[in-house]
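in:
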């Protein structure tokens, strides 16, 4: 395992990346093997009380048609996912207080009856609430720090508290969740040095999963603008360096990568990633969960998409994991 310091990380971030990607791919193979874990993602509500400057489902975006799945729909979608072969279900949503802990624990308990690993990505909660959800059976939790540049964090997350986000991550770790964090790469005024700090933060937290995605401007947000194609390469380098520094963790090839580059997720799988999270939300809702534009065109027909993806993976010389894909010891 390479313990890179900040300067070494910065040097790699400004390099062309070619050697870095090969090195990350080798380390991925040696440490987590050729298996790719497919996690079925359900986006169960796009209602959000937060107002993050970059996000298409932010509270103040009046152009989004809001939806929430009811409890039975969520459980039914998860069941279909398990029947289709997914060994992990990921429940993601905006911060929607309609889903209180009582409702959420019920959903978690029902889904856990399907003998599947369950990941939550539902934002900030109190430690007690995280504890209840863990007790109900949740295995993993994804909460990106987004950026470790506190001033930038403050600017883009009105009425949110950077320290609380960090606390949430440490609480999740302490409660025994497989804890995932990660960053948005290419935010306006984000520096290379702060990206290096992000990686050092993942390491310090001893995160079990890292999801890194390029920032994609959404027209209905304060950070609207043109897509910066360089964000793809920079996100890829962030991901590859993370693999080198944290060889055993799970790293998804994120959907946002595919929005910028048609083969983005496949390229990511060759540069350190070992997880893909296909969207299994019913198509009626999928396009309304528009955190950034371009995503709605991806994997529209769930069954076909999974088959296509599996074929691509096999063609790459990789295999589809048959287990739940917990972090390797
Ligand atoms: N509310 C939960 C939370 O805060 O963790 C989960 C949902 S949130 C929409 C999921 C992720 O979407 C965020 O962590 C953020 O990094 C990503 N995201 C939001 N807007 C984005 C954009 N414009 N480009 C790329 N990723 C974006």
């Amino acid at each position: 395992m390479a313990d890179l310091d900040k300067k070494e990380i910065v040097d790699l971030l400004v390099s062309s990346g070619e050697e870095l990607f090969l090195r990350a791919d080798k380390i991925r193979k040696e440490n987590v093997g050729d298996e790719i874990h497919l996690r079925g993602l359900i986006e169960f509500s796009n209602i959000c009380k937060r107002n993050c400057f970059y996000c298409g489902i932010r509270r103040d975006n009046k152009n989004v048609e809001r939806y929430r799945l009811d409890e039975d729909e969520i459980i039914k979608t998860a069941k279909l996912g398990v029947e289709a072969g997914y060994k992990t279900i990921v429940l993601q949503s905006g911060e929607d207080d309609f889903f209180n802990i009582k409702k959420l624990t019920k959903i978690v308990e029902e889904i856990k009856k399907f003998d599947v690993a369950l990941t939550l990505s539902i934002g900030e909660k109190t430690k007690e609430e995280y504890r209840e959800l863990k007790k109900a059976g949740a295995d993993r939790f994804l909460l990106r720090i987004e950026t470790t540049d506190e001033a930038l964090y403050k600017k883009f997350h009105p009425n949110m508290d950077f320290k609380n986000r960090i606390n949430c991550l440490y609480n999740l770790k302490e409660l025994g969740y497989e804890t995932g964090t990660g960053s948005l790469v290419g935010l306006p005024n984000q520096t290379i040095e702060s990206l290096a700090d992000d990686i050092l933060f993942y390491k310090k937290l001893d995160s079990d999963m890292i999801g890194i995605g390029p920032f994609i401007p959404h027209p209905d947000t304060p950070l609207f603008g043109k897509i910066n194609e360089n964000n793809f390469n920079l996100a890829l380098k962030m991901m590859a360096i993370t693999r080198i520094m944290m060889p055993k963790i799970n790293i998804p090839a994120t959907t946002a990568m595919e929005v910028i580059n048609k083969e983005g997720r496949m390229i990511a799988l060759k540069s350190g990633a070992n997880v893909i999270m296909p969207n299994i939300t019913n198509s009626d809702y999928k396009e309304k969960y528009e955190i950034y534009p371009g995503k709605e065109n991806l994997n529209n027909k769930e069954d076909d998409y999974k088959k296509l993806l599996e074929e691509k993976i096999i063609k790459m010389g990789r295999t589809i994991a048959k287990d739940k894909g917990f972090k390797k010891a």
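note: The domain at 6-320 is CATH 3.20.20.70 (TIM Barrel).
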